[in-house]
Amino acid sequence: MTTTTIDARGSYCPGPLLELIAGLKLIEIGDEIEVWSSDMGSVKDIPEWVAKVGHEMGETVEQDGYWSLRIRKSK
Amino acid sequence: MSKRILIVGGGLAGTITANGLCRQLGGALGKGEVSITMLGNTDQHMYQPGLLYIPFGAMRETELFRDQRKVLDRRVNFLLDPATNIDVDGNKVECQSGKSISYDYLVIATGSRIVPEEIPGMAEGAHWFYDLDGARKMRNALAEFDGGKIVVNVNAPHKCPVAPLEISFMLHHHLAKRGLADKTEITYTYPIGRLHALEPVAHWTSAEFDKFGIKSETFFNAKSVDPAAKTIESEEGSTLPYDLLVTIPPHRGAEVIEASDLGAGGWVPTDRYSLNREGSTNVFVVGDTTNIPISKAGSTAHYEADTLVDNLASLVLEGRTARPYDGKVFCFVETGMDTGTYVWFNYETPPNPGPPSKMIHWSKLAYNRLYWLSARGLL
Number of folded domains in chain A? Predict the structure, then answer.
């Protein structure tokens, strides 16, 4: 299992969720992505999309001025 | 000893960089202290944003192309010889011809490409305008279209993030002029839970779509297309029927990036401020090729290239860089066939699109011509 970090802090376009969607296409099932987002909306919209598609949401941690969200590719 | 600058890629980012460097390094070039070489895949330079107009017959194909050598400053040594391997440890690039070209400074500007084949059925069942062949086919399909369901499907990642909105508005207005608006239902799909990545643009789009009766479905990432049944299915479990499917296909970076093990998906890990390839001090990345989390767009490539020109020229002449890239992006947005708006933002400033106007539309039409001055580094 490998973890890829996507530093999407300060990203207005395409933004953290679109970066995540693109990033998931490049990893294997079982691998993880850690998204860094400075947009508080990511705390809501990333888990919402992850649940809708059927990937696995890991922990969300508030860091100094941003959030770190961990997602495991499940399909 | 002469400093050798090698630019891989002859699209907008590579071309602005090459021409800008010629202007700033003119003296050193004249004395033979610096050389600039570009490796390109084609001898024709294409104005890619013009592809949007091809399906509607609003631009001629010949308007999209210029001879690459004529767009480039004559001091650039242009080689029509695609790179096949980029060796950043050995400071050299291998080419299709078998040549190996060494450099002191490397600029990677290899761009992006559409990969509709990565979604089953998409290449067979969908139309797009992101390359010339696709735009021609879409023009033909649109000419034959006499009403029905149109799905405008957006996939991630993709370049020119406002183009999906533009094509939706333009389709509506084009079909309305042909008297087909009442017989047509346009549904726009987007990968995340709103209509555009930029929240203010998404809000604005929602109101505009309501005005024109354009429907939408969010959280829609294409999983497959069934060309026989004329349906598109999403990863999220939704299926939409279509008579005409217009897709913004997913993108990847250039094959040479992956072949050279420089970045997953063809995107090179890049410092968002210095534009250095991560881990290299003499390798820079501009345009779509970076993995910087900002729009892959012509304007991004332009502003990055402007920054890189200043930095690389300063590095060569003074041994220091000039300024960081601030993340600036500026995009015109066509909101129909005769109105437009624009958005701009950077790493610190969020976008805030204004109301559409004819004046902004005309500005975009003017830019469609002025582009060639941009590419030459004059605008």
Answer: 1
Taking CB atoms and an 8 Å cutoff, what residues of chain A touch B161? 13-14
Residues in chain A: 75
Q: How far, CA to CA in Å, does B164 sit from each of A11, B49, B170, B295, B334?
A: 19, 12, 10, 13, 10
CATH number, residue A21: 3.30.110.40
| Structural domains in chain B plus CATH codes | 3-111+254-326 (3.50.50.60), 116-250 (3.50.50.60)
Report d(CA A66, CA B353) in Å as an integer.
26
Mark whether A13 is an active-site residue: yes
CA B118-B122-B127 angle, to 5 degrees, is 125
User: What is the ipTM for the molecules in this complex?
Assistant: 0.94
Tens-place pLDDT, residues B107-164? 999 999 999 999 999 999 999 999 999 999 999 999 999 999 999 999 999 999 999 9
pLDDT digits (tens, 9 = 90+) for B43-53: 999 999 999 99
SS (H, E, C) B239-285: EEECCEEEEECCEEECHHHHHCCCCHHHCECECCCCCEECCCCCEEE
CB contact under 8 A, B197 and A22: no
